[in-house]
Amino acid sequence: MAAARHVLPLAIALLALSGCGRAGDRATVRAVAEGFYAAVDDHDGARACGWLSADARQALERDESAPCARAVERLQLSGRRARRVEVYATNAAVALRGGDTVYLQDTARGWRVAAAGCRDPGYDRPADCELES
Amino acid sequence: MRFARDNSLSIFFLAIFLASLAGQAIAGHGQFNHDQLLHHGDPISLGRYLTTSQFAADVAENWQSEYLQFTLYIVGTVWLLQRGSPESKPLDQAGRESDEDQQIGSHAGPRSPRWARTGGLRTALYENSLLIVMTTIWLSSWLAQSIAGASGYNADQLDHQAATVSWLGYLGSGDFWSNTLQNWQSEFLAVGSMAILSVYLRQRGSPESKPVGAPHDATGVEG
Fold it and tell me: Do A22 and B36 touch (CB under 8 A)?
């Protein structure tokens, strides 16, 4: 019973802290979002496409009727450096300074961009995005 | 063997608690990955699922409602009565009762817990210790539910490219109160059912029941 007195509060504390994100996720998510926007800005379509999730890539190629490396350079994106990073479980969002919000998913290949060029997200309304999967 | 026999009730419920928690983890992991695939995501390992806010919220929301149930039951049965129920005190004993009835202070016996004898703050704390601990566990697990629930809610918001909410904002959300109240209603129904069904029904050998031959209006009698 003495053990239970110590185990229960610890268990409750661990429950509360779970889902806060794994160490390093915030830095990784920031790097992926900034890396994608930098690649598009540098007109390096192949590098940019490497940061996209499989679904985002397929959606882009379908919507633009062009290979990803060419289609990604047509995206109207704004921003470069991260202003705010949020990570919840396998989903993340990076708001860029003076610009867009980028949404990411944790995939089998690591964190990848699922939607980019997003503006005006509401609590009950998804953001309008240049690219979404 | 004697230890096992004398503590068989606790051991049994600890064992089935651990088994059902493990089962919940496995089933929840399967459901989480199913949902991932439906949302074009990738499945995660069981180990990672156990660290997710979804698993934490699912566990905590059930813990908080169970401990709330016991908190209300403990304090409610001090003053509230149910004629004919073994869950109720006798009809003429509503309230905190006398020091003599409760074996406190000078009325404590040689084998009474030490803090029942000492008086003062220690006795005041000890005579409410069950309520204090149950309430603390309830509030702590409710807090854990709110924190983990907010995280899971925000993960879903981001999955739909929608805005996230603060923890305080989540406390006012339909998601938080729906999850809270769906648990509360079942707990309150269970306790209420037990209080009234035990008036008329019997289970031979259980201290939760009146003796089989006890009259329906016999109150506060255990089998």
Answer: no
Interface of B with A in 53-92 (CB under 8 A): 53-57, 59-60, 63
Contact B174/A41 with Cβ under 8 angstroms? no
Contact list in A for residue B36 (CB cut-off 8 A) is: 90
Would A79 be classed as within a structural domain?
Answer: yes
Best residue in B59, B158, B175 for a mutation probing chain A (most A CBs within 10 Å)? B158
CA angle, A19 then A95 then A61, to 5°: 95
Six-digit token pair at B60?
A: 């905590």
Residue B5: how many other CB atoms lie within 10 Å: 8
Beta partners for residue A106, in sequence order? A111
The verdict on residue A5 lying in a domain is no
CB distance from B171 to chain A under 8 Å? no
Q: What is the CATH number of the domain that holds A28?
A: 3.10.450
Question: Which pLDDT tens digit goes with each residue over A94-115?
Answer: 999 988 999 999 998 999 999 9
Give the pair of three-digit tokens for residue A91: 């989903």
- Check CB contact under 8 Å for A123 and B163: yes
Q: What is the pLDDT of residues B87-137, one digit of tens each?
A: 999 999 999 999 999 999 999 999 999 999 999 999 999 999 999 999 999
Q: pTM of the entire structure?
A: 0.87
Domain count across chain A: 1
